[in-house]
Automatic annotation (TrEMBL), chain A:
<keyword id="KW-0670">Pyruvate</keyword>
<feature type="domain" description="Dehydrogenase E1 component">
    <location>
        <begin position="91"/>
        <end position="392"/>
    </location>
</feature>
<dbReference type="InterPro" id="IPR029061">
    <property type="entry name" value="THDP-binding"/>
</dbReference>
<dbReference type="InterPro" id="IPR001017">
    <property type="entry name" value="DH_E1"/>
</dbReference>
<keyword id="KW-0560">Oxidoreductase</keyword>
<comment type="subunit">
    <text>Tetramer of 2 alpha and 2 beta subunits.</text>
</comment>
<dbReference type="InterPro" id="IPR017597">
    <property type="entry name" value="Pyrv_DH_E1_asu_subgrp-y"/>
</dbReference>
<keyword id="KW-0175">Coiled coil</keyword>
<keyword id="KW-0786">Thiamine pyrophosphate</keyword>
UniProtKB/TrEMBL annotation, chain B:
<keyword id="KW-0630">Potassium</keyword>
<comment type="subunit">
    <text>Tetramer of 2 alpha and 2 beta subunits.</text>
</comment>
<comment type="function">
    <text>The pyruvate dehydrogenase complex catalyzes the overall conversion of pyruvate to acetyl-CoA and CO(2). It contains multiple copies of three enzymatic components: pyruvate dehydrogenase (E1), dihydrolipoamide acetyltransferase (E2) and lipoamide dehydrogenase (E3).</text>
</comment>
<protein>
    <recommendedName>
        <fullName>pyruvate dehydrogenase (acetyl-transferring)</fullName>
        <ecNumber>1.2.4.1</ecNumber>
    </recommendedName>
</protein>
<dbReference type="GO" id="GO:0046872">
    <property type="term" value="F:metal ion binding"/>
</dbReference>
<dbReference type="GO" id="GO:0009507">
    <property type="term" value="C:chloroplast"/>
</dbReference>
<dbReference type="GO" id="GO:0004739">
    <property type="term" value="F:pyruvate dehydrogenase (acetyl-transferring) activity"/>
</dbReference>
<keyword id="KW-0560">Oxidoreductase</keyword>
<dbReference type="InterPro" id="IPR029061">
    <property type="entry name" value="THDP-binding"/>
</dbReference>
Amino acid sequence: MAFSGSKIIQQPLPLHTTIRSPDNPLLSDPFTAAPFLGSTRTLRLTHSISASQRRSASPIVAVSDVFKEKKLKSNTDLLLTKEEGLQVYEDMILGRAFEDMCAQMYYRGKMFGFVHLYNGQEAVSSGFIKLLKKEDSVVSTYRDHVHALSKGVPARAVMSELFGKKTGCCRGQGGSMHMFSAEHNVLGGFAFIGEGIPVATGAAFASKYRREVLKEADCDHVTLAFFGDGTCNNGQFFECLNMAALWKLPIIFVVENNLWAIGMSHLRSTSDPEIWKKGPAFGMPGVHVDGMDVLKVREVAKEAIGRARRGEGPTLVECETYRFRGHSLADPDELRDPAEKARYAARDPITALKKYLIESKLVNEAELKAIEKKIDELVEDAVEFADESPAPSRSQLLENVFADPRGFGIGPDGSYRCEDPKFTQGTAQV
Amino acid sequence: MASIFQGVGAATALSSSTSFDTKKFHLSSRRSFSVRRASFFVVRSDGAKMDSGLNRIGGRADQLVTNAVATKADTPAASTASKPGHELLLFEALREGLEEEMERDAHVCVVGEDVGHYGGSYKVTKGLADKYGDLRVLDTPIAENSFTGMGIGAAMCGLRPIIEGMNMGFLLLAFNQISNNCGMLHYTSGGQFKIPVVIRGPGGVGRQLGAEHSQRLESYFQSIPGIQMVACSTPYNAKGLMKAAIRSDNPVILFEHVLLYNLKERIPDEEYVLNLEEAEMVRPGEHVTILTYSRMRYHVMQAAKTLVNKGYDPEVIDIRSLKPFDLYTIGNSIKKTHRVLIVEECMRTGGIGASLTAAITENFHDYLDAPIVCLSSQDVPTPYAGTLEEWTVVQPPQIVAAVEQLCR
């Protein structure tokens, strides 16, 4: 799909150019409700400069300007096909329905501990992950249910994991904050913020290694690292921006800036709240996008993923988004201004996409209703499956501590601990 | 005797998939320890007594080499030229092991500060970047937490990185990644991802390096579930443990010591891999079991000279595997001598010695004729002044005194 906006960005710009978009400042007022899907929110694509490397570069135009242009040009030029539209819509509905069900199940005592829900942020997950191949990797944080679902992990497996059952994607050993799937290349699920970013950097490094050292010539796997605004003040974030840009790793750093780190407002904790600016400081493009608008996210994602696949290096994408629920199910969410919540609720990404799809005559109401029904059934089925699945038995206790269980060592009787018959029963002395 | 045969039974069961000739390794009829696991060949410390009272550093290697090389049945004592094997320094042995593994498997790579162009701050990776390129021997920026995490992420995706901490102490900055991701990810992912990394680097008290460069991180890491820790002490075991650690699918932390890099020893020409979980019998004896590792092994052996002259017969075991402990070798020794002395470089509180004391008390309490004595470093940040530094670590006279006390 030829989108002239992407083409402009794609032109071979030297890594260090002098262009800064002259438009209005980006976060002048993050709280004004702006119309989306064709809104005038500017996108900024900047590159860092080195005076000695100044070359004549093509002008960069903010992506949204081209959006406007396109709309003026032709009404039949749509941003995605019907098939893609339905796919994205279904993914977002799945994310929302699943998380709503999680809340219900939590309050009914089916899952415990810390559960962090993704309501409101679906545009980021669907916008990015639906563009990936199965071999591409996704790394997330503790707010990872929807990333796993978007990547293809079955709802049943995720729900079972949340219920702590052995049929969960991690055999019940990980829980809400540790969703992993080797099959779908979901590399976690991390409880401490920031600690997943180096892991994502490693996955991107492995991709580059395969291509250049192991000579797997067609290896162009990219890695997406999702994390929040709070993480952007953490050392690991900056250290990995540096390494990724230095070695031109095929990674996209996706910041889900929902303005709040539990009860800490982004503006109260960050000296320069414009996170996208931090990309050029390390030598990579920094882009800001309206994270409540799945189509805008998708366009930016396409460009960033394309860059990574072509070996041009990493991109930092800041998605301005919002979580409709508290930080976790234990968070009373008393600090956020109800007016702010209302403003963002009016920008619900699912409602927006629905509106776009119908107004552009891509789909009709009935098709969307069918999807919603399908998802409702899927989620119900997932709950049923999880409910009926057995809890892990004692035998599972010691099994996955080591990939090679000889790591438990040699017991007093001379045999390896893992050879003790009680080991598989989970009652051996280790 | 029965326990040894039980061990043999277990060993043969475990080693059914490997091909080696057990007959070659029947070292001594009296106390042959079974060969537990072999790749090419694995040599367990032999149980035969040294007839000379002096056990020089690496002296055991001669006996080892004789058994290891099938062709040369009797080696003339004097001529070094005709001795089998080759002589090298410990850091070269580490490099040899590393290089052999990199040659063998293209997924093995090195990540760390100054490992590439500089060749490693202790020359362990010298020449490797020239041979394998800048991506396989990766010079990282100074960001321990992140490049350790990067190594872990790469391992999850199929590579086998060796992460070097320029000094073990620097890995304190990587504690987040080592504890949370390295140790735990295999478990929390339900076994879906393995983390076959080797984290290595020099630690321990050096020569007036100051408090922060003289740390013993084995005591801090030992509680982390899901990792193994080994400490090398001779060129022979350095190479063997390096290779074993790289081949292991578990995350292994290999502790080297700043003062041991220039130890010289003759090691076999043939390829060999040691067992990560086993301890090493350094000097068999009857009166007391001395358990030690890394640099303290040499303080112990120095003390052993004195002790032998005084008529004692200490059994010295280099535990090598700091996590898990080889309770079989250790137990057999305790059952024989009934007295235990632990000599370590960790601090008194929460060190390896503390854990070992607990493990021995738990498992072998009935066999002890005296309380376990544990000699550790003082709970003091290592001072710069040479005199003070000397007093923070265990010295041979203290070891001699402790044995005399124990054996009274």
